[in-house]
Amino acid sequence: xxxxxxxxxxxxxxxxxxxxxxxxxxxxxxxxxxxxxxxxxxxxxxxxxxxxxxxxxxxxxxxxxxxxxxxxxxxxxxxxxxxxxxxxxxxxxxxxxxxxxxxxxxxxxxxxxxxxxxxxxxxxxxxxxxxx
Length: 132
Description:
alpha/beta; 2,3-Dihydroxybiphenyl 1,2-Dioxygenase, domain 1; 8 strands
C-alpha cells in the first residue's frame, strides 16, 4: 500500500463566487463545478482537484459527506512551469493583485505569494523547493 498523491485539497471562503472568480480568472484554473453558495471545484491538469467551500455551510452536520471547515487563512501552493513564474507575477500585478512576497529558495526554486479574496495564502512555485 502507498499514498500516491493528493487527490483534492480544500480552501475555505465565505464568498465562494468571489474566490472562484479569483482562481478562474487570475490563476486560470479550470472550473468544473459551481460556483454556488456551498462550493466551487477546479480540476488541475495533473488530475488533482482544488475545492473552495463556504466553511459555515460545509461544517453543518447532516451533509452527505462528513462535515468539515476551518477558520483563518489557509495555504495552497501550485507548481508552475519553469519560466512561467515571472509571467504569472506580471499578470497578477496587472490585475491589481499585490505580490505579498517573492522568495528565491536555497535549493534553486522560486516562489511568489498572493492572497485570494478570502485571505488565503496562495503560493506559485517554480522548480523544486523541498528535499527529495
